[in-house]
Structures are given as C-alpha cells and as structure tokens.
Recover the amino acids of this structure.
C-alpha cells in the first residue's frame, strides 16, 4: 500500500473474498451502454474499454492528488479546497470520489463494467452513500476474473456477491490505488 505522511481513516470491516468471479454473468449491452443510469446508480456512466496505457496516465494524476490530500489532512477544510479545485478542472478523475477513479478504470481495462464507486467518506467532508470504500461491478467482454482476484488479494481488498454484481471493498481507501497498479501491471504482463 502507498506510504503517505498521514493515512486516511481506516473503517472497521472484515476483508473476505467469497465470490467466484468466473461465474459472474455478463451485463447486457442495453444496461452497460445506458445513458440514463442504472437503477442502482442513476449517475452511472459507461467507462468500458479503457486500456492499460490510459489507466497508467491517470494513476499518476491520482497519486499527485492523494499526496496533496495527505499533506492537507484527508478530511480538513484544506483537503476540501484541494478537492474542489481539482474537480473543477477537467480530469478523467472527475465524477469519482477521490482515491477511486484509477481502480474503476483498471477494472474497465480488465473487462469489468463498474456500476458505482464510493470512498466511504474517508476523504473530504461531503456526504457519501457508503461507509466503506467500495466499487460495484459486473462482467463485460474480455473479463479477466483471475487477474482481478489476484490483484484484490495482493492489495488486501475484499470481494463479495451483491445481487447480480460483485462488490470489491477495502478497510482503507488507498488500497484501491494499490489494486489499480497491481491489476494494470498484471494486464501489461499478460499482453507482453
């Protein structure tokens, strides 16, 4: 996991992996390509089709943002100002809670279809729907369940079934950036 001067809040959750990702059904094209949202997330937008090179570029941006937030103290007024300034500029990370964007894009590069994500309110001061950092996703074309599972295990993330989807979660939001790096490295190795 990333070493920062100050770590974000850790949440009390049992990390477990109780799902067989290879059995996850494909999300149908109509819902995956929705422009009106999916019932679970009306703000859903389609991020399918990311490639490893693009994820790696965004990882650098996310690391810079996380470093600034650590220096400001994750949930302070100064951190909130950093978030407002960062997300007012056009960024591929806009639309995602801080710390979650590159994991969403890495899942996309691994053939998953991310449905929703939340940092559990562990960064910034705004309201969050979840108390645990998590991403809900479905299987898509070219889904790489073994690589996702291995990266989740190495980054100490949990994976559980959640209806027709899978929820990947952590007790500490920085583990998602670590997961992103591990998954993109595995994808790069597979194609080389």
């Amino acid at each position: 996991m990333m070493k920062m001067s100050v770590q974000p809040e850790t949440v009390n959750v049992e990390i477990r992996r109780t799902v067989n990702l290879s059995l996850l059904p494909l999300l149908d094209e109509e819902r995956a390509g929705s422009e009106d949202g999916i019932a679970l997330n009306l703000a859903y937008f389609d991020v399918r089709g990311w490639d490893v090179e693009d994820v790696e570029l965004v990882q650098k941006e996310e690391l810079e943002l996380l470093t600034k937030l650590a220096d400001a103290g994750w949930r302070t007024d100064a951190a909130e100002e950093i978030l407002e300034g960062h997300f007012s500029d056009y960024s591929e990370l806009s639309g995602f809670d801080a710390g979650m964007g590159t994991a969403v894009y890495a899942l996309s590069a691994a053939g998953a279809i991310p449905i929703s994500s939340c940092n559990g309110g562990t960064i910034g001061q705004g309201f969050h729907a979840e108390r645990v950092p998590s991403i809900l996703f479905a299987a898509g074309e070219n889904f790489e369940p073994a690589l996702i599972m291995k990266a989740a295990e190495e980054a100490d993330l949990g994976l559980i079934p959640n209806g027709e989807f899978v929820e990947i979660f952590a007790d500490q939001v920085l583990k998602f950036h670590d997961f992103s790096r591990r998954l993109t490295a595995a994808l790069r190795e597979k194609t080389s």
